[in-house]
């Protein structure tokens, strides 16, 4: 784990992934320069390795809800506004999204509550969601992945975010950075201290007290008459 002033916590995986990609591209250029046939063979082997030996996927525990449409996400977020949602907008082909997947899954397993939920939506398959929530889903996009916090049915915070000059601030999606950006520890404590059942009981008691007060007022009117 490396800590930088701008990026916060960054794992070596981020640097190694980039260095390996650049090394393979440099090798391809050198092979083409030496012998175009060898360059073609290297390029074919590179593509085959990518297709037959993909990056390992996360298979551990997670409590993530997967959405299929922007309307489905909006309906769920507004269905019960007492529930806080942390939703990741991603694509299957983006390396940053692939690296973020196990981190987000682990966070969902650690912080999931009945009123603190985690969700994901693939904007590559469902571009309407990218358009609705203003996430650039192009191949050159620096907004992938994007994580948005919804509180009371509305967007409260997102990363990466834009600065005052409209420039996108770089964000590394490590576990520590996500926890710090959304203040997850305090958010978890807040949601745990106010469970949905407790709120329902408070609402019921408030309703009963109103009925009692109304009863007293009615009986007072009867006596006065």
Automatic annotation (TrEMBL):
Alphabetized, the UniProt keywords read: Membrane, Transmembrane, Transmembrane helix
Xref: InterPro entries:
Thioredoxin-like_sf, Thioredoxin_domain, TMX2_thioredoxin_dom
Residue ranges of domain Thioredoxin in the record:
47-193
Compositional bias per record (Basic and acidic residues), positions renumbered to this chain: 213-225
Does Transmembrane count among this protein's keywords? yes
Do you know which CDD domains this protein is assigned to?
TMX2 (cd02962)
Q: Which Gene3D superfamilies is this protein grouped with?
A: Glutaredoxin (3.40.30.10)
What protein name is recorded for this chain?
Answer: Thioredoxin
Q: Which organism is it from?
A: Nesidiocoris tenuis
């Amino acid at each position: 784990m490396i800590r930088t002033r701008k990026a916060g916590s960054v794992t070596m995986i981020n640097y190694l992934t980039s260095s390996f990609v650049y090394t393979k591209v440099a090798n391809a250029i050198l092979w083409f320069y030496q012998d175009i046939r060898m360059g073609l063979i290297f390029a074919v082997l590179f593509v085959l390795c990518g297709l037959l030996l993909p990056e390992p996927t996360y298979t551990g525990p997670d409590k993530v809800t997967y959405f299929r449409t922007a309307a489905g996400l909006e309906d769920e977020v507004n269905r019960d506004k007492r529930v806080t949602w942390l939703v990741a907008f991603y694509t299957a082909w983006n390396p940053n999204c692939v690296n973020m997947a196990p981190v987000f899954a682990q966070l969902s397993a650690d912080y999931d509550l009945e009123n603190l939920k985690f969700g994901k939506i693939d904007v590559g398959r469902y571009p309407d969601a990218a358009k609705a929530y203003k996430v650039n889903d192009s191949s050159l996009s620096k907004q992938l992945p994007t994580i948005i916090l919804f509180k009371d049915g509305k967007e409260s915070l997102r990363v990466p975010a834009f600065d005052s000059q409209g420039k996108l601030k770089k964000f590394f999606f490590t576990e520590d950075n996500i926890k710090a950006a959304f203040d997850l520890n305090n958010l978890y404590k807040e949601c745990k201290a106010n469970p949905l059942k407790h709120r329902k009981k408070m609402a019921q008691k408030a309703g009963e007290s109103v009925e009692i007060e109304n009863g007293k007022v009615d009986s007072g009117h009867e006596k006065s008459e």
